[in-house]
Specification:
Fusion Protein Consisting Of Minor Coat Protein, Glycine Rich Linker, Tola, And A His Tag, Chain: A, Domain 2, 4 helices, 34% helix
């Protein structure tokens, strides 16, 4: 099947929207009281796609209501340049799955009033360790004379 550049955005949008209507299975144990805790909670839900060919950064803008549900549709505002179209699709789906796993967030009463309707710019990063260079030791290399 050949995928044109016109059908790719439609397929991505369909995949992203379908992940938002699945019931969350992730249970939360404590209420979030500050922004640092919100970002820490969202990081625990992030699982980068294993088949990606490069280290990719992606940023999504999302807003929550007082009960911790997402308002509207999350909007991706940044993706690394070196990402291929296939990698972009995998990362977009992984971001939406992370949001689905984490929501609804449980806010304290004070935090719920402070964050309701305000946009959050959430960065998801995949940093695989670079391969360690093999040290060459000239004095240990066998020489043929």
């Amino acid at each position: 099947m050949v995928m044109s550049r016109r059908t790719l955005p439609i397929q991505v949008a369909a995949a992203l929207l379908s992940t938002l209507w699945i019931t969350p299975v992730w249970a939360q144990s404590e209420r979030l009281d500050n922004i640092r805790q919100v970002f820490a909670r969202l990081r625990t839900c992030w699982k980068p796609p294993p088949a990606a060919s490069a280290n990719i950064d992606i940023t999504v803008i999302v807003s929550f209501n007082r009960s911790g549900d997402i308002i509207g549709h999350p909007r991706i505002t940044y993706e690394s340049e070196q990402a291929t179209d296939g990698d972009r699709v995998m990362y977009r789906v992984a971001v939406m799955e992370a949001l689905q796993r984490c929501t609804p967030l449980l806010f304290t009463d004070g935090m719920a009033g402070a964050v309701a309707g305000r946009p959050f710019a959430i960065q998801f990063r995949n940093r695989r360790p670079s391969p360690q260079p093999v040290e060459k030791r000239a004095w240990l290399t066998p020489k043929t004379v």
